[in-house]
Design brief:
By secondary structure, the chain is α+β, with helices and mostly antiparallel strands. It is 30% helix and 18% strand. It comes from Clostridium symbiosum (Bacteroides symbiosus).
Length: 104
Amino acid sequence: MERLTYFTSEKESCQVKGADNWTCKEVCENYVRCDACPIDIAMHRLAAYEDTGLEPEEIEELKEKGTTQKMHKPNPNVYCCPECGEALDPMWDYCPWCGQHVID
């Protein structure tokens, strides 16, 4: 994902790429079309994120579940989910309890 924002060198404020230190009015004066306005693009992405209803921590948790993890084997005949610890069938690709992507 391409970031649409950046922090100033002093980390005192966040800026929208392409708008930099301009006011919203100055951005509108410099971009002919609204669909090319960096502030409008950033606001639409923020709105889409907010529509998910998820907090940043929940997004990070979902990203981690998207990565494949090796099943935990407490003994040779038992396979468990590395995330929630529930017993798994070694043929499963996903834990049915927590959704973690797993491999044998």
